[in-house]
Amino acid sequence: MKAFFDSSIKQEVSRCLLCYDPPCSKACPAQHKPDRILRSLFFDNPDGAVRWLDAGDMERTCPQGCNGARYCQNACVRRKIDRPVDIQMIREFVEKLKDDE
Questions:
Q1: Is residue 73 part of a domain?
Q2: pTM of the model
Q3: Alpha-carbon span 44 to 23, nearest angstrom
């Protein structure tokens, strides 16, 4: 897979604190694992990020799961420092990666 990381995505992913017990995943009402996608991209593994997107069927169920409430983002520990990681933007980026396959 040819992956293109623009600077805004790379910068946003690098803001993730890689929590040991990630609250973003705990907060998801659909039991998705956004931390796995973030970790994959953090370590330059876009194929892994796409697999995690597919594993939870996030592309289809994520927007419906919380009706835009962004529970994962609101639970992000980074919020205590400045602002939460923009998980929705990152998920949309991974969806585009998948479409480019």
A1: yes
A2: 0.86
A3: 22
